[in-house]
Amino acid sequence: MTASPAGPEWAAAMRALAAQCGRAPSAHNTQPWQLRYEDSGVGVYWDPMRALPVSDPTGRDLFLGLGAYLETCLVVAAGAGLGADVVVDVDRAARRVAWLVPAAEPYATRFTANDVASRRSARGPYAAGPLPDDVLDEAAALVEDAGGIRHLPARALAPLLARADRWMFAAPEVTAELREWLRLRPSHPRYAQDGLTDRALGLSRAEAAGLEMMLRPRVYGTFRRAGLPAALAASSRGLLRGEGTALVLVGPAAAGPAELVALGRALMRSWLALAVRGLATHPLSQILDCPATAAELAAMLDLAAHERAVAVFRTGRPLIEPPRSARRGG
Ligand SMILES: Cc1cc2nc3c(=O)[nH]c(=O)nc-3n(C[C@H](O)[C@H](O)[C@H](O)COP(=O)(O)O)c2cc1C
User: Fold this and answer.
1) Labelling 137: which of 110, 151, 273, 324 has CA 20 to 30 A away?
2) The pLDDT value given to residue 161
3) How many domains is the chain partitioned into structurally?
4) Which of 28, 178, 193, 314 to mutate to test the pocket of ligand 1 (most atoms within 8 A of CB)?
């Protein structure tokens, strides 16, 4: 395939790549992007039913995910020899984030469609040991046009994660929204389409059945004040033991949608660089969602008033091969 300057062939060529582009990551695997193919370009919009208004009221993860999606599209198009560029054009009323437009040259990237396909979130145990300095330097270099990367021992986040998980499971609306996106048994009608499956979460059949039961509105409603949030939070207790590394993407404190899109593109580049080395990522966004733990993290990292952590994730070599996550359209 060759780069065509514009017009219907370019849009058709982009359409043919949609499934590969759709391997981009998104919070709760909602895949919020919606595409409108026009001769002048592809409008990238978001579906309000796939935003997370309760757990992501500011749209932080929405715009990071859309940024990751746009970066993924450029990498996939480049792999097909197709020139493409991103023009960010946020219109909240129209729910548009950007245009993908034809470009004379394919996007300059060292990542491939294969890297996109092999990247994984992994929520199970990771091999012990910190990330080597050259990997940290590489991740930092890949985000520097949008923000910075800080690192800390994953272990240091353990108390924050426990507190953030308890906060999350104590909030009925947040838990209800999470429940909407959980697919805890293979018979769920959207199991292969979107959301978080039992397999993606690394749960055994018994654990998945237990979680499903505890999150049932009547059970949750009855036991919410009787220790259920702490019991639910306990499942992630062991994750941050050991000597692993957590990375934090830091951007401007006042980052609006356009800056978050740039940060999402940067995040995707760093995740691809880690994937190339066989490393997976496990975002722990609840630490940023919970105001108390977000403030604690900012203090731990000594962030300046003009800085804000926008993504936090542990990373490492997964000891259990993570499953391929579900996608709409297969
Ligand atoms: C902005 C953003 C925030 C995310 N936050 C979390 C999180 O807090 N916890 C988690 O387990 N996964 C989180 N994820 C990972 C997604 O759930 C994951 O990308 C999605 O389920 C698809 O799986 P994959 O990354 O293996 O393709 C996040 C992803 C993005 C892009």
Assistant:
1) 324
2) 95
3) 3
4) 28
pLDDT at 4 > cutoff 70: no
Is pLDDT larger for residue 306 or for residue 221? 306
CB atoms within 10 A of CB 80: 17
232-244 tens-digit pLDDT? 777 676 778 778 9
What's the whole-number average pLDDT of the chain? Answer: 94
Q: At what angle do helices 257-276 and 60-79 cross, to 10 degrees?
A: 50
3-state class of 59 per DSSP? coil
Contact 319, 264 (CB under 8 A): no
Let me know whether 225 and 151 are in one domain: no
CA-based nearest residue to 102, from 32, 8, 190? 8
Residues 232 and 244 in one domain: no
Residue 127 domain-assigned? yes
The span from the CA of 316 to the CA of 108, in Å, is: 27
Q: Whose CA is nearest to atom 19 of ligand 1?
A: 25
Ligand 1 pocket list (CB less than 6 A): 25-29, 61, 64-65, 68, 120-121, 123, 196, 200, 282-286, 325
Which residue has the least CA distance to atom 10 on ligand 1? 283
pLDDT in tens, 171-180: 999 999 999 9
Least confident residue range of 21-25, 183-187, 221-225, 284-288: 221-225
Q: Which residue has the tokens 């990330």?
A: 131
Residue located nearest, by CA, to atom 3 of ligand 1: 27
